[in-house]
Design a protein that fits this description.
397 residues; mainly alpha; two-stranded antiparallel ribbon; 2 strands; 73% helix; globular
């Protein structure tokens, strides 16, 4: 019996990413304009304003900036976690052969940029930022490749989505392991207890989302206070949401469908507005030639296409995977260029990497520059492949 998979959530996910990428670009531009206008200081004050409440038992009073980066971004990671789980159960990561090439590509796209950055920043105070160029921004990358339309094979778009998802999973693990501060074991114990309850709900066949969301809120609270970055709670919650491999909409697909538009049209734009408010100064240009700036630019713009292409080639040569349908090695290299768009996750890791505002600003500026380079070069390269193919076909005719 052939299983029928419900692919509507993936279509919604991809369709929203296209528009979401455009909105993100607009928000980045707006944020930069605000930061370099008379409103810059007022905007900074707004982001540092504390909201919430605290008592002897509960601490929930944080700056607007922290609520965005630890609160709203946990919802973003919840969506990413749902996508990862669904792809593992029924999509591009559902079998070893299907998962091998995008996972290898993502692995190469993380290892090579990290090595490049580490080599350039060895022995400097900025060495801790090695995780910055490892990330691929799924919204921007899918948004750019969607602009190519039918000029690239549809299988290449799916491959990029799978690569970006695997890359997100890798970034999540890097954050959890290497960018976590001091652990508070009692809070971690409470988190573990809630996670066990969520797993039990899944095992006993509980389908109503409310029974997962409420414990998930408490999971976020205790993870946040445990010292592990709070966004990890979103992924842990996602992995406990029930799904299936049939056409009927599962709780996971229902929640994913509910979150796609709010995340792409509200949460990610807010994150972009809050975290790219960079005031341009002359020394920022000099920062691009510093080990920090060069490490990020070379890692994203060069390390990504090299790592993605090299590890993809190795996976095929070792007989572990094969190229997607209608995709050639030039397509893979072009896709590697697009994978160098590391905006959202790279900025997020930069904020975790450095306490210094100066380093954070230099890192953000380098990320913007390298992501723009990656997006333009990836689009131009892939577009040129189609142009060459069209030209050859015309001559043959």
């Amino acid at each position: 019996m052939v299983r029928t998979i419900n692919i509507k959530p993936f279509k919604d996910f991809f369709r929203s990413e296209q528009i979401g990428g455009v909105i993100l670009i607009v928000c980045v531009i707006v944020s930069l304009i605000i930061a370099n206008s008379n409103l810059g200081a007022a905007f900074e004050n707004l982001l540092s304003t504390k909201i919430g409440f605290s008592s002897s038992a509960i601490v929930l009073e944080y700056s607007v900036s922290l609520w965005i980066n630890d609160g709203l971004m946990a919802i973003f990671f919840l969506l990413v976690g749902l996508e990862i789980k669904r792809e593992i159960i029924e999509g591009e990561l559902s079998s070893p052969q299907k998962a091998a090439m995008p996972i290898f590509a993502a692995l190469g796209g993380m290892i090579v940029p990290a090595i490049i950055y580490a080599l350039m920043n060895s022995g400097t105070p900025t060495i801790h930022g090695w995780g910055i160029p490892m990330a691929t921004d799924i919204a921007f990358a899918l948004g750019v490749i969607s602009l190519l339309g039918k000029r690239v094979p549809s299988s290449l778009k799916i491959f990029l989505a799978a690569l970006a998802i695997a890359d997100d999973l890798g970034a999540i693990l890097v954050i959890a392991i290497f960018y976590t501060n001091e652990l508070h074991w009692m809070q971690l114990l409470y988190s573990t207890g809630i996670l066990i309850v969520l797993i039990a709900l899944n095992r006993f066949g509980v389908k109503k989302l409310i029974y997962y969301i409420i414990p998930g809120i408490f999971l976020w609270y205790f993870v946040h206070h445990s010292g592990i970055h709070a966004t990890i709670a979103g992924v842990l919650l996602a992995l406990t949401i029930p799904t299936n491999t049939v056409k009927d909409e599962s709780p996971l697909e229902k929640l994913e469908h509910l979150l796609v538009r709010p995340v792409n049209f509200l949460i990610m734009p807010i994150f972009a507005l809050a975290n790219t408010n960079i005031r341009f100064e002359n020394k920022m240009i000099d920062g691009l030639s510093s080990p920090l700036g060069l490490g990020i630019i070379c890692g994203l713009a060069l390390g990504k296409p090299i790592g993605v292409s090299l590890f993809s080639w190795l996976s095929v040569k070792l007989g572990i995977a094969k190229l997607p349908n209608k995709v050639n090695w030039k397509h893979i290299f072009g896709l590697g260029l697009l994978a160098g768009i590391g905006f959202t996750m790279s900025v997020f890791i930069a904020l975790l990497s450095f306490n210094s505002i100066e380093y954070q600003i230099q890192a953000k500026f380098a990320i913007i520059v390298s992501s723009v380079l990656a997006g333009i070069s990836g689009y131009a390269f892939l577009s040129s492949l189609n142009h060459k193919k069209t030209t050859i076909s015309a001559k043959e005719a």
